[in-house]
Amino acid sequence: MSIASVRPGLPLGDVNPVAKVAATVPLSIVLILTLDVVSASVAILCEIVVFALVGLGGLLWSPRTLPVWIAAPLTGFSMVLYGAPSGATLWDFGLIHVTEGSVQIGLATTARVIAIALPAVVLFLTIDPTDFADGLAQTLRLPARFVLGALAALRLVGSSIDDWRTLDLARRARGIADRGPIVRFVGQAFALLVLSIRRGSTLATAMEARGFGAAGERTWARTARFGRVEWGVIGVGCLVAALSATVAVVTGSWNVVWS
């Protein structure tokens, strides 16, 4: 049974998930090393072009990437207000000290968050958890016990979302949900935590009983392949990282974070 048969028709769906994760590493390293608008902007532009070419352009503007587009400006805005002051002062009020330097840091931070988080989210949406576990165990040779435990936990994320909705309806039906939004959230979160611990303990016992933690050679239902396509995906990630760094150095905007 091939990986491609799990998610038919999805762009990059048949690519080994390990290669997708590895493709984001070089760019993340480059953008972590420098704090400038140019490198991050070039990276964002390259990401939009690459994802559009492979047929994933629609995911860039989907509701699933909305948290990235919201969190990035908020992060940059906080840097504008409380970042290290430098240059001319634009606005000063109490602890808030907005300068030309803090504005530049805020813009660079916003662009850097988008450039790092956007490809990670988009590529993660193309990854099937079971395929990812197969890749970790067969390609990276990680311990099967750890991989299967992580897969089980990831599979339970969807159940936790359904449990949250069920708890909300149950508490409303019993008349204990009308205590204010903060009190309701804290009480419901604690109930979900207790439920998750109980379910995790039960699942761990069941997996142990079925021999998931047994020693010896383990067989896999699917084979995780790693070939030229996977190396090509990693190469594209390295190319985007190199291009971003090169343009930043040539334009003189390369700014190492500890300099």
Instruction: Tell me the overall shape.
Output: flat
Number of domains: 2
The largest sheet has its strands arranged as: 1-2
User: What is the overall number of helices?
Assistant: 9
Helix content: 55-70%
Structural class: mainly alpha
Terminal CA distance reads 52 Å
| H-E order | HHHHEEHHHHH
Mean pLDDT: 84
Radius of gyration: 23 Å
What is the number of beta strands?
Answer: 2
Give the biggest beta sheet.
Answer: 2 strands, antiparallel
Q: List the uncertain runs.
A: 1-8
Which range does the strand content fall in? under 5%
Characterise this structure.
The protein is mainly alpha-helical and 259 residues long. The chain has two domains: 3-127 and 224-250, no CATH class; 140-209, no CATH class. The chain has nine helices and two strands; from the N terminus they run H-H-H-H-E-E-H-H-H-H-H. The protein has helices at 17-33, 37-54, 57-60, 66-82, 100-125, 129-138, 144-173, 181-209, 228-250; strands at 89-93, 96-99. A hairpin with a 2-residue loop joins strand 1 (89-93) and strand 2 (96-99). The protein is flat. Mean pLDDT is 84; it is low at 1-8.
Which tags fit this structure?
about 260 residues; single chain; about 65% helix
Task: Walk me through the topology.
Layout: H1 17-33, H2 37-54, H3 57-60, H4 66-82, E1 89-93, E2 96-99, H5 100-125, H6 129-138, H7 144-173, H8 181-209, H9 228-250
Antiparallel strand pairs: 1-2
Helix pairs in contact: 1-5, 1-9, 2-5, 2-9, 4-5, 6-7, 7-8
Question: Can you summarize this structure?
Answer:
This protein has 259 residues and is mostly helical.
